[in-house]
Amino acid sequence: MPQRLEYPDQLRDPERLAALQQLGLLDSPPDPAFDRLTRLAATVIGTPIALVSLVDRERQFFKSAFGLSEPWRSQRQTPLPYSFCKHVVATGQPLAIEDAREHPLTRDNRAVIEYELIAYLGVPLVTEAGHVLGALCVLDIRPRSWSQAEIEILTDLAASVMSEIKLIARQVTIPEPAGEGTIGLCRSGRCTFINPVAAEMLGYTAGEMVGQSMHDLVHRGRYELNPLPGNACPMCQALQAKQTVQLADQVLWRRDGTSFRADYMVYPVIQHGVVTGSIATFVDTTERQQAREARRAHRQALAEAEYERDRLQRLVAQAPIFCYVSGPEHIYTLANDSYRRVIGGRDPIGKPLREVLPEIESQGIIALLDRVFTTGEPFTGIEMPVMIDRNGDGTLEECFFTFLYQPDIGQDGKIDGIAVYGFEVTEQVRARRDTEASVRPGGERIELLAEVSHLFAEAAFDQQAILETAARYGAGQTGDTCAIRLLSEDDKWLVPVALYPTTPGTRHHVRAWLTGSSLPVDTKHGLWRTQADQPLSIQEYTPEEYRATIGRAARFMEQLGTQSILVVPLRARNQVVGLMSVLRDAQASPFSIEDQRFLQALADRTALALVNARLFQQLGERRQQYQALVGRLLLAQEKERQRLAYELHEDLAQIAASAYQHLQAYAGRQPMPPASDDLDQTAELMRRTIQEARRIVTELRPTVLDDFGLSAAIRLQVEELRATGWQINYREATRIERLPAMVETAIFRFVQEALQNVRKHAGTTHVEILLEQTDQSIRMEVQDRGRGFTPEASISQQVGLASIRAWVDLLGGEFLLDSRPGGGTRLRAEIPLRDD
C-alpha cells in the first residue's frame, strides 16, 4: 500500500511562510475581487464549490470560499488534516483527483470522511520569487473526470488571483509602495541609504549612491545637464525649512544622462528640535504624464466627433424630406420636421408605417417598400401621386412627391431598413398641368413629356444621362440643334454640358462651339442672361446685332446658318440653374408659342430632375458620413471607458489602498483610545473607498469580458444579481464561442443597460435572458414583466436605449423594443457574424 505523504519540509519552509505573512492576507476580511473569481470558477467549470486557499504552518485559510458548507464557511479556515491544497503547495504542480476516496493522497483525509468531498482540481498560486502560497481549487461532491480545458481555465483564473495578490503586495509594502523610490539623507545632503526601487530608477547601485551628494548627483536643469541651484532643490529646502516639501512634475537624471519626470515628497528627520537629515520618496510619472496627454488628445478628438455628428444631424433635419423605417414592418425610427409636416404633424417614431398612414395602404407605396426590403434594389419614383390626410380630419388631398427608397444594406448583405429621401412637387405638377393644357390639342407632346419623365426616372442619379435625354428631345421636337448650359458652382459662368445636333454635318460646328465656350452670366445681351427667369425667342437672328455680345459663338452660329433662336431658363425651386437653347436654320419655320411652351415644360422637368439627383447624392453622402462618425464616437466612448477604468485602477485605487495600509500601520503603534477609534473609522472608510473604486472599474470595463468572453461575463453578472435576490431565468441556446471584441462589447452593453432599466424603471426583479448564437448571427433578448412604458417616448428621452441602438446599427444589426404600460418590456438585438 502506498504511504500517504505529508510534505512537512515544503509546507514549513521559512521563506514561503514569511512571504505569506508579509502579504497580510491571513485572517483578512472577504474581498469582492477574490469572491468574483471563485464564483466565476465554479460557474464556468460547473462545480458547487470553489476556494482560494492559503496554506499556513498548521492550517489553511480561505481568502474566498464559494459554496462551502458550515462550519467552515463561517470559520474560513480548516486544520491541515482537512486540506487537499497542501499537496499542491508541496509539489508546486496542479493536482486533479477524480475520486478522493480512492486516491492515495486523500482517501484518509478528514474532509473526505466527514464532509464527503469527492472530486478535486487545484492549481498552485506561485509568487514571482517561486513561493507557493496556496491554491485555487474547485471541488465536487461526486466523482468526475477533469478535462484539459478545465485545467487550463482554472490555471488562467489562478493567474487572475495572483494579479490581485500582487496588487495587495504593492499596497502593503511600507514605506515602499510599488514603483516608489526612497532615499535617506544626512544633514549635509549625502545619501545614507537607498531602496532597490530608487537605485534601479536612477541606474546606480546602492554602493555607488551611499555617501554621494544627491543634489549634485541627480539634480540638474529641467531639460539640460546644468546644475540645479541649491535653493531650487526640494531636499535642501526640507533641511532648511524643517517641514515636509512636496513637488509634482519634477525631473531626475539617471546615470546614463537620461532623465524622467517624477513627483517628490521630502520629509525632514528632526530629533530634539534639530534637523538631522531627511527622507525623500519619489515616483516615476513619465507614463502617467504620457497617458494624460493621450487622454487629453482623445477627449479633444471626441469633442470634434460630437460636433461633427451634431452638424450632420442638423443637415439631416434641414433636408427637404427624410425618414428611416426599419424591419419588414417598416417601423419609423427617424423622421425630420419636413416629413412630419407632410404627414400632418403626426408623431411616427416607433410605429409601423401602416399605423401612421393607413390611407396609403391601398395606394401601392407599402408594396414598393416591401419590394425594396426584399430585393435590396433601390427605387426612384418621380412625381408620384399620393392621397394623404394632411389636416388630420379624414379629408384626403392629392399630392405629388419625388421619392428615393434606398435600402440600408450591411456588410453581411442583410437589409436593416430603408432610408426615404424625397421632395414635394405638388405645386410644380399643378403648374405644369396648366401649361400642358395649352399645348397641342392632339396631346402628342404631352405623351412625349410623359416619356421624358419616365426616362428621367430610369436615369435616377445619372445627371449626364438626364442632360443628354433633354437635349435629344429638345432638338428633335423644336429645332435643329439643342444646347444646355448650367451655372457654375460660384454662379459666375454658364458652362456647356450637353448638346444634340440632328445632322452629321452640324456636329463638328456645334462641338467646336461648346468646347471652351463658357460664358459669364453678366453678359450684357439678354440672350444669355438668366436673371429674368423668362423665355427669349429671336425669330430673325442677325450676326451684326449680336456679334459684339456673344463673341466666338456668333461665328459658329453663322456657320450653322442659324435663323431662329429659342432660349428658356432651367428653373427649379424658384431658382434658375441654367439655360436650354434651341437653334433653327433658315430653311425652318420660326418658333411658335407651342414650341416655347413645350421647351419650357421640358426645361422645368430637366431642372427638377437635376436638382433631385444632386440632392439625393448629397443626402446619401451625408448619411454615410453620419454613420461613420457615430461609429467612431461609440468606439471613442468605449476607449474612454477603458482609460477611465485604467486610471481608477492604477491611480485612485492604489493611492487609497496605500493610505489604508499606512493607517493600519499607524494604528498598530497603539495610540490612545480616542485616537484609535478615529483611526479605525478612517481605515474602514478607506477600505470602503477601495471596494467602491473596484466596483466602478468593473462596471466601466469588466476584466472577465476581455479574459473569458461574452458568455462568462453575462453569467457572472447574472450570478451577482441572483445573490442579491433577483429571480433570473438565463438560457444559452447553443455553446457561445469567442466573438470579435466589438460584437462582445455591444452585446454586453445591451445586457448591462437592459438590466439597469429593469432596476430603475420596471419595478420587478423577475427577468428572462436568452443568448443564442448561430452560424450567421448572435441574438440577445432581455424580457421583464414589470410596469412597462411608452417606446416612442423612451427612445427620445433615455440615453441608454439610444446608445444600445447606435451600437447595434454600427454592427449592422437589428434592434427591437416592445413595451407597453402594464405589459412589461422586451428588448432584443440580433447582430450578424461576418467572416472578417
UniProtKB/TrEMBL annotation:
Keywords of this entry: Coiled coil, Kinase, Transferase, Two-component regulatory system
Domain PAS span(s) in chain numbering: 188-219
Gene Ontology CC entries for this record: membrane
Species this chain originates from: Nitrolancea hollandica Lb
SMART domains referenced in this protein's UniProt entry, alphabetically: GAF (SM00065), HATPase_c (SM00387), PAS (SM00091)
Name of one Pfam family that matches: GAF
GO molecular function, one term: protein dimerization activity
Domain Histidine kinase: 643-835
Protein name per Swiss-Prot or TrEMBL: Histidine kinase
Lineage, top ranks: Bacteria, Pseudomonadati, Thermomicrobiota, Thermomicrobia, Sphaerobacterales
Entries under InterPro entries matching the protein: GAF, GAF-like_dom_sf, HATPase_C_sf, HATPase_dom, His_kinase_dom, PAS, PAS-like_dom_sf, PAS_4
Gene3D superfamilies named in the record: 1.20.5.1930, 3.30.450.40, Histidine kinase-like ATPase, C-terminal domain (3.30.565.10), PAS domain (3.30.450.20)
Keyword Phosphoprotein: no
Chain coiled-coil ranges: 288-315
Top-level taxon of the source organism: Bacteria
SUPFAM superfamilies: ATPase domain of HSP90 chaperone/DNA topoisomerase II/histidine kinase, GAF domain-like, PYP-like sensor domain (PAS domain)
